[in-house]
Specification:
The chain has eight helices and five strands, in the order E-H-E-H-H-E-H-H-E-H-H-E-H. It has about 200 residues and is of the alpha/beta class.
Length: about 200
Amino acid sequence: MSGRYIAFEGIDGAGKSTVAEAVAEELRSGERVVVTVREPGGTPVGEAIREILLHSHDDLEPWSEALLFAAARAQLAAETVAPLLDSGAWVLSDRSVYSSLAYQGAGRGLGIDLVRTVNAAGLGDVWPDLVVVLELDATAGLARQEEPDRIGGEGIALQEQVAAAYRQIAETDARVVFVDGSRSLTEVVRDSVAVIRERLIESV
């Protein structure tokens, strides 16, 4: 069986990690190995960078932020994601390069195309086969967070810019699909699994 790489995206509080884990359980079978990862993180290097990005250093410059995300992502791709895909495993990720396109490219005003180019240097061909964006109103997303991280704590304006960026990216990227993240976990997981089966399983 060939490996597949699926990213779960969305604004802060959209439920990405919870949905990714639940979907992974649904997709596991006797022959299919499904592994979940998170960004930033997933490796010792990535976890160290995660601490800088999300829990300290409020004075990070936008490009410093973008490059740190790219560095953590490149390490995860080389150390974890690529070997898993080569072994035939499916990788479900809580965030991916698409987060940087939306947050740093659009939200920070660095430019989606430029951020894409910077990340491409470190990722090579390790890009998601499918990107499931969990859509949720920005106010509702922030309300779900008990303790917002550094980026989530910046307020609603950034989250609204990010939500709009995912829609913009989807206009020219067929890998991006949207699932209504405002409903129950059961419904969100059901629809996420349905689109994965349609795009990556039944189409094979």
